[in-house]
Amino acid sequence: MKFPAFLFSLFLSRLADQILLFLVPLVVFQVTQDVAWSGYAFAAETLPRFLSFPICGALCDRVSPLKLLRGSQILRALVCVLGVLANEAMGGIGWLVGLSAVCGVLTTQGVMAREVILPQIANGNRFDKVLAYAQTAEQTGTVLGPLVAAALFALWPWQAVVGAAAGFFLLADVATSYWRRGNPMQLHEPQGEPGHILQPIATALGHVLRLPGLLRLTMLTSGVNLMLGTTLASSAAMVTGLHQRSATYYATLQTLGAVASIAILLAIIRGSIPLKRMGVTAYALVFGGGLLTAASTSHWGYAAGFLLVVGFDKMFSIYIRIHRQRIIPAQDYGKTTGVIVLLNNLTQPLAGLVVGALADSVHARGVILALCMVVGGIGLAAAVAAGRLARAAKP
Prior knowledge:
mainly alpha, Growth Hormone, Chain: A, 15 helices
């Protein structure tokens, strides 16, 4: 089946995406020397990718997901090239933010298409094993992305680094094409759904509101993503500004975060952690990591908090995906997941906007601490709601 080629395409696509995510806040902060603009840039590049999840999920029910996957890779390469050419012609750092935002939407389409394709690739094999391989390939891209970006950025201007990202996107499509030519299985073509393309979104929203426990899980995930978004939106300014570390240190810290994620995922695979304990542990450690990034006056303390937030976010992701699969009807899983991903992740760009509006070199730590309190409040409210439901279910 040439499955390694498919995994290689996932790796290259994630590598290129991480290069863009690394460049935007760092270049914006270096140009402006303002943590507020770094926060705004993070919001601008992340908000479109999250808003597009429901529409991209609905498209996967109407258009071949393989075509959508390959199209997203080719178009991202094209957008990178056009963005660089526009910058050379007219100037302005806005072209970097803009091309990253457009690529983010196309990345969302690729992610949703991959989610539809992966169960078909399993084809009788253990789906969790296929999914684990896919996550490992993507996490490897996440690990190497900041390192590759920092190494290239040390030698080239950001425009050339974006050009390298375009090359990686094209190589990802070449790997996808090679995999497909050697794959004898017939992928299911979508039959389409009657009615307007927004109808699946209405169905999904109904599930979120009516299915027991799903709204509470969505709120908890929003809290984790608020903490993650706050950490990511402020990290470039906190590391290179407040703690006076280099861009290489910043890239290394991001890489260590991805390594910590892989280590935690491997520990989950090899171990046997009860689901409830997994969720409580992950949420508590993400919250504790956020407090540490806000309170620490040392770059070592900040780094420890950063690793807790980024690493245990993946543990919570596994917890939430298992829970969602148990609650959502199988026939509506795709469309409902697309809407939930949107609702869950809106707090990430919101965090970027809050950091941009309220934070500066003096007040950034206070803003992070305030958002930590919001995350703690969400967790406490969810725990109280879960306790009431458990008591009400008792005879």
